[in-house]
Amino acid sequence: PWLPGWGERAMVAALLVLWVEVSGHLLFRFVLGEHGIDFAIFSQAVASIAREGVPWVTLANAQRLNFLTHHFSPWLYLPGALAWLGVPAPVAGVAFHVAGLGVAFGSLYGLARTLGLAARDALALVLVAALSPANRAALSWTFNDELYGAPFVLLGLWQWLAGRYRRAALAFLASCLCKESFFLVTLAFVFVALVWHRHFRPAPERRAAALALLPLGALAFVAFVAYFFLQPLLWGKAFDHASKLANLDQLLSPGALGAKLLYVLSLLVPTLGLSLASARGRRLMVLAVPGVALSLASGFDEMYRPLNYYAVVPLNVGFVALAAGVPALQARWGE
C-alpha cells in the first residue's frame, strides 16, 4: 500500500496541514495589510490582466510599465483569467501559488521514489524540504514568479529521471513562462541531461532524450539572449535588473563577501552538505549554478540574503541531489 504505516500517514497529514497553512497565512497577511511589496506588485499585475488584458503595474519602479518587460512572466495570465471571472486578484494569485506548492511536493516525492527511495524515506525528504527555513520563508512571504516556476523544475526533473523526456521538456518550458531566470536553469538542465545522460538514464535512450531536449535548450538560449540583451531593440528600454549587477567595489566589499558566504552555506546546511557527497548529486547541483551565480553577482542584497525566495531553486535542487546520491551514500556507509 502507498501509506503502509502510521509514520507515512503522519507525514502526509503534516504536509496537508502545511499546504493549507501557507494559503491561509498569505491571505490573512493580505487582509491585515501586512503583505510585502512583491505581493502587491503581482496582485496589481493580475488585476490589470483581468481588466485590460495587459499586466500594467506602477509599484515596481514608480512608473507605469508592462510587467512583462520587468520580468518575463506570461504565467500570470492564468491567475489573471481567474480574476477576470470575478475572483479577487490576490486570491487568484495565492490559488496558483498553493497549487504550485502541491506540484512541488508531489514531484519531489515522485522523483525520490523514482530514484529508489522507500515511501517513508521519500515522504521524510519532502517534509524536511517543506519545513526547511528558507522554503518556509519563501512560501509564506508572497506569491511571485520565482515561486511559480520552481515547482516546474522539480516536475521536469522527475519526468526526466523517469524517462519521460517530452514531459520533462514541457515542464521546463512552463518554468520559462514564469520568469526569465528559468531560461538559464533550463539551459543548465539540458546540459546535465545530455552530457551526463548515462549516469542517470539507460544509454539507448540518449537519442530520444536529445530529440526532446535539444529544441528546448535552443529555445531557452534564444529567449535568454532576446530578453536579457535585446530589450532596447524590442521594447525601447534596457533590462531593468541589469542595473543590479554589482560593481567591483561591491563584489569585494568584506560585508558583501561575508553575507554571500553565509548565503551559500544556507543552501548547503538543510542537506548537511550531502547534496555534494555523491558524483550524481554534484552533477545535478549544476542546475543550482544559475541561481547562485546571479545572486552572487548582484549588488541587490535581497538576492543573497538567507531565508529569501531567491534561494528556492538552488535549495530544492539540493534536495534532489541528496535523493540522487542516496544509493552511493548507502554503499559507502555499508548499508
* Rg, Å, rounded: 20 Å
Report the structural category. Answer: mainly alpha
The biggest sheet amounts to: 2 strands, antiparallel
Counting DSSP H or I runs of 4 or more residues, the number of helices is 16
Low-confidence segments, given as residue ranges, are none
Strand arrangement, major sheet = 1-2
Portion in strands: under 5%
> What is the typical, i.e. mean, pLDDT?
87
The count of DSSP E runs of length 2 or more, i.e. the number of strands, is 2
Shape: globular
- N-to-C series of helices and strands: HHEEHHHHHHHHHHHHHH
Helix coverage percent: 55-70%
Between the first and last Cα atoms, what is the distance in angstroms?
A: 24 Å
List the helices and strands and how they pair.
Elements: H1 6-31, H2 37-52, E1 56-57, E2 65-66, H3 77-84, H4 89-114, H5 119-131, H6 133-141, H7 145-161, H8 165-176, H9 181-195, H10 206-229, H11 231-235, H12 248-252, H13 254-268, H14 279-284, H15 289-296, H16 312-332
Antiparallel strand pairs: 1-2
Helix pairs in contact: 1-4, 1-5, 2-3, 2-4, 3-4, 4-5, 4-7, 7-8, 7-9, 7-16, 8-9, 8-10, 9-10
Please supply descriptive tags for the structure shown above:
2 strands; two-stranded antiparallel ribbon; mainly alpha; globular; 67% helix; 335 residues
